[in-house]
Design brief:
The chain is of the alpha/beta class. The protein has helices spanning 4-16, 71-82, 92-104, 117-132, 172-175, 186-196, 221-232, 251-256, 282-285, 304-317, 322-344, 369-372, 377-389, 410-426, and strands spanning 38-42, 45-48, 53-56, 110-114, 136-140, 153-154, 164-165, 178-181, 200-205, 235-239, 262-265, 276-280, 349-353, 356-360, 392-393, 402-403. It has 2 domains: 4-69 and 320-426, Aspartate Aminotransferase, domain 1 (Alpha-Beta Complex); 71-317, Type I PLP-dependent aspartate aminotransferase-like (Major domain) (Aspartate Aminotransferase, domain 2). Bound molecules: pyridoxal-5'-phosphate.
Length: 427
């Protein structure tokens, strides 16, 4: 597949952008080789700078649940733009988007809109600390919550080890307020609460993990975290930036019947424009400025283009059968891929929840980050490049999710399985 123009652009990008990109995953380091440049997208397809149309299973890393340039979203954004792009004064659509979110996430009585998932998780944690008057945060290994200081902490070596910053530039005292524990391990959570219980402000977790590949919660895990936090007066924060509106319309809390104190959303609720949101009971949310002392603000928060795109996306997604149909196609694709891998003798561990999926090139089941790291990333990289050359764009890393949209039809799934047959045979 010709990628000449993309190569030229990549060289130019590296001259003026740090690392050639504005977000590291775009550089394809997880699979080696150079990224392609996108020029346009329509439905399930993204077209690159050399004119290749690729079936897109990344979908801007999750937001585009209707596919690229859905007519309803395009029209809503154009209409909003014509009326003015930003006011810094309240607008009605902020209410409408919040109402839609609350209708699906009843644990959120009140919402605050921001501009990204990172901003939303960072702010939710500040609020949890303000509400509880405690400093410590528990983060789960392999979960990603954006790039705020307190969250860039990887696994400590033992359960009681205080966090070590993963990135230079994070002051050690910030990182030391973050404790880490493995996903799907209630015993580890209990041990942290035994030792630090009355100092823990919150647990933040992706209830369906999507940033170590897709790893569903084990039976009873989320319920166990709910009970531990309730008993110790800590808050349970569900980071549903990725899994919100993707594992069910009501997210993981609807799917698993567990209620979070604070919920963080992003991605799908912006329909491809920059949005994040966090919310919870009024008694907690009213601590935010201007009613309360916990400060958080944003010049462009609740931006008219972003709220228009978000509302239009949720409207289309709420139509009867739309979500179920995307989830069903996700299941069909996964079943097909699994069968092909099996008949090619390639060991894979397949996970999927709702409209998110992952194919771990691994002989062992994946229940947490340590398991995920066992996957054969080189083999995944070979699979990725063969698929790309056949016109199928998968996430350029083993540790990312595969997303479907309402625009992925049987034709696309068939083309994908045809390509996968070849790719499994040669990886
Ligand atoms: C993408 C993501 C974030 C960060 O959102 P940005 O909009 O990239 O800042 C936070 N949490 C989870 C679970 C995510 O998947």
């Amino acid at each position: 597949m010709e990628r000449k123009r993309s190569s030229e652009l990549w060289q130019a990008a590296n001259r003026v952008l740090a690392g050639g990109v504005n977000s590291p995953v775009r550089a394809f380091k997880g699979v080696g080789g150079d990224p392609f440049f996108a020029v346009s997208g329509k439905g399930a397809y993204v077209t690159d700078a050399d004119g290749n149309a690729l079936i897109d299973y990344v979908l801007s890393w999750g937001p585009l649940i209707l596919g690229h340039a859905h007519p309803h979203v395009v029209e809503a954004v154009i209409r909003a733009m014509e009326k003015g792009s930003s006011f810094g004064i309240p607008t009605e659509n902020e209410i409408r988007l919040a109402e839609k979110i609350i209708a699906h996430y009843p644990s959120m009585e009140k919402v605050r809109l921001v501009n990204s998932g990172t901003e939303a998780t960072m702010s939710a944690i500040r609020l949890a600390r303000g509400y509880t008057g405690r400093d410590l945060l528990i983060k789960v290994e392999g979960c990603y919550h954006g790039h705020a200081d307190a969250l860039l902490v990887k696994a400590g070596s033992g359960l009681t080890t205080l966090g070590v910053p993963t990135s230079p530039g994070v002051p050690a005292p910030y990182a030391s307020c973050t404790l880490t524990m493995p996903f799907n391990d209630l015993a580890a959570a209990r041990a942290l609460f035994r030792e630090h219980g009355d100092r823990i402000a919150a647990i933040i977790v992706e209830p369906v993990a999507g940033n170590m590949g897709v790893v569903p919660p084990a039976e009873g895990y989320l319920q166990g975290l709910r009970q531990l936090t309730r008993e110790s007066g800590a808050l349970l924060i569900f980071d549903e930036v990725m899994c919100g509106f993707r594992v069910a319309l009501g997210g993981a809390q609807a799917r698993y019947g567990v209620t979070a104190d604070l919920t963080v959303l992003g991605k799908v609720i912006g329909g491809g424009l920059p949005v994040g949101a966090y919310g919870g009971p009024a008694a907690i949310m009213d601590l935010l400025s201007p009613t309360g002392p916990v400060y958080q603000a944003g010049t462009l928060s609740g931006n008219p283009l972003a709220t228009a795109a978000g509302i239009a996306t949720l409207e289309a997604l709420e139509q009867p059968g739309v979500f179920e149909s995307i989830a069903k196609k996700t299941g069909d694709l996964c079943a097909g891929l699994w069968a092909l891998a099996r008949s090619a003798g390639v060991p894979v561990f397949q996970t999927h929840v709702g409209t998110m999926a992952c194919l771990f090139f691994s002989t062992n089941p994946v229940r947490n980050y340590a398991d995920a790291l066992q996957a054969d990333t080189q083999r995944y990289a070979r699979f990725f490049w063969t698929m790309l050359d056949s016109g199928i764009y998968l996430a350029p890393s083993q540790f990312e999710a595969m997303f479907l949209s309402a625009a992925h039809g049987d034709v696309e799934i068939e083309k994908t399985l045809d390509a996968a047959r070849k790719a499994f045979a040669s990886c």
